[in-house]
Amino acid sequence: MITITESAANQIKEMMAAEDEKSVYLRVGVQGGGCSGLSYGMGFDSEVQENDTKFDQQGIEIVVDPESKKILEGVVIDYKQNMMGGGFTIDNPNAIASCGCGSSFKTATNAGTPEEC
Predict the structure, then answer these.
(1) Can you give the pTM of this predicted structure?
(2) Which of 22, 73, 93, 99 could form a disulfide with 35 if both were Cys (CB 3.0 to 4.6 A apart)?
(3) Which CATH number goes with the domain that contains 60?
């Protein structure tokens, strides 16, 4: 479903280690918004909802809600470091268009809720 590269996994594990919670999950999702209609969300969650999909990738327990699961199929999450710092990148084969800054997108079956830039 979602692939997390080794670089991204190392960064996520460092961030998880800084969390106070003993058992924390990486929640990856999609919500409406941004100029193209859909935006990614990624953060830590201590709870798994009944209808969430839960799986392990690179030793990280990941949870995804049912609506996001369809849109995130085949996504690759990476972490890139450069002279200006570092950040996560998301490569989504389902995205047919994205905004100029790359923070929002739309798929063939879901245009989301576009906002003014």
Answers:
(1) 0.83
(2) 99
(3) 2.60.300.12
